[in-house]
Automatic annotation (TrEMBL):
Signal peptide: none annotated. The keyword Transferase does not apply. One of its GO terms (biological process) is lipid catabolic process. GO terms for cellular component: mitochondrion. It comes from the Eukaryota. Residues 37-64 form the C3H1-type domain. Belongs to the phospholipase D family. MitoPLD/Zucchini subfamily. A zinc finger (C3H1-type) spans 37-64. Keywords: Hydrolase, Lipid degradation, Lipid metabolism, Metal-binding, Zinc, Zinc-finger. This is Mitochondrial cardiolipin hydrolase. It holds the Pfam family PLDc_2. InterPro entries: PLD-like_dom (IPR025202), PLD_domain (IPR051406), PLipase_D/transphosphatidylase (IPR001736), Znf_CCCH (IPR000571). Residues 137-164 form the PLD phosphodiesterase domain.
Length: 197
C-alpha cells in the first residue's frame, strides 16, 4: 500500500495506568494553536544586539507563536526529517537551511503539486544541498510532520506557510514520546524509499 505502517485496531485501547494520580509520563508535550494573535510575523532585528530601529516596523517585536515553533525546530543538533505538504514560509525555510549549514542532516519529503507551486522553498533546499524527495503520484503526500534528532515529533494540521501562521486555524503538537517518534520515523523511511527526487 502507498501509506505508512498500519496501526493495530483501536478496540484494544485501554487508558494508561495512573501513577500517583497522574498519567504515566510520556515526555515533553506542547501544542501551538495558530494563527498569530498579532497577525504579524516576528521582526528579524528585534532580537539582535542592535535591535530594530525602524520607525514604522510592521513586524511583531514581542514573543510569537512562530518564534516558539522555530525554537523547537532549532533544537535539532543531529538530524531533521521533514515530511510536509507545503513549505513556503521563508522564516521556517531559512531556519531549515541554517540547520543544514550547521551540520544537521536534513531530509525533506513533500508533494509534487506544492513543490512546483509559486513561492515553494523546495528549490532553495535543493540548491543548498538538502536532499528532497517528492510524491509524484496522482494522490497527495498530505502529512505535516517533522522528527528532530529521533527525539522530538512535531505533527499537526500546520503547513509551513505564512497563510498557516497568520491566517488559518491550525495546530502543531510537539511530543517526546519514543513510540510515536519511532512510528513516524518508520513512516518517513518508508516514504523516503518510495518517492524519488
Amino acid at each position: 500500500s502507498m501509506g505508512c505502517l498500519q496501526s493495530p485496531p483501536a478496540s484494544n485501547y485501554a487508558a494508561p495506568p495512573q501513577a500517583n494520580g497522574a498519567a504515566a509520563s510520556i515526555g515533553h508535550v506542547d501544542v501551538i494553536f495558530f494563527p498569530e494573535p498579532s497577525g504579524k510575523m516576528p521582526c528579524r532585528n528585534a532580537n539582535t544586539p542592535r535591535g530594530c530601529h525602524r520607525h514604522n516596523c510592521n513586524y511583531e517585536h514581542g514573543p510569537t507563536l512562530i518564534g516558539r515553533f522555530l525554537q523547537y525546530l532549532n533544537s535539532a543538533t543531529r538530524t531533521l526529517d521533514i515530511c510536509v505538504f507545503t513549505i513556503t514560509c521563508d522564516e521556517i525555510s531559512d531556519a531549515v537551511m541554517a540547520l543544514h549549514k550547521r551540520g544537521v542532516k536534513v531530509r525533506v519529503i513533500t508533494d509534487d503539486d506544492q513543490a512546483n507551486s509559486l513561492g515553494s522553498d523546495i528549490d532553495k533546499f535543493r540548491q543548498c544541498g538538502i536532499p528532497v524527495k517528492v510524491d509524484h503520484s496522482k494522490t497527495h503526500m498530505h502529512h505535516k510532520f517533522a522528527v528532530i534528532d529521533h527525539r522530538l515529533l512535531m505533527n499537526g494540521s500546520f503547513n509551513w506557510t505564512r497563510q498557516a501562521v497568520l491566517g488559518n486555524q491550525e495546530n502543531v503538537v510537539m511530543i517526546e514520546n519514543p513510540k510515536l517518534v519511532h512510528d513516524f520515523s518508520q513512516c518517513f523511511e518508508k516514504l523516503w524509499s518510495q518517492f524519488r527526487a
